[in-house]
Description:
The protein is an all-alpha fold. The protein contains three helices and no strands.
Amino acid sequence: MNIENTASQMRKGVLEFCILSVIQLGEAYPSDIIDKMKAANLNILEGTLYPLLTRLKNAEFL
């Protein structure tokens, strides 16, 4: 088992739930999501956020 890969996959899963919780509060631009994540000490880059948003959209969560 690759610990780094497992940690990366767990972080992606947590980020998806965090993004959904931010969006649940109301419409949010990507910059708003990034700001709220930084306020919670979860640094996320646009290059990470956009693929997650696309995946959530394709899964019909957005």
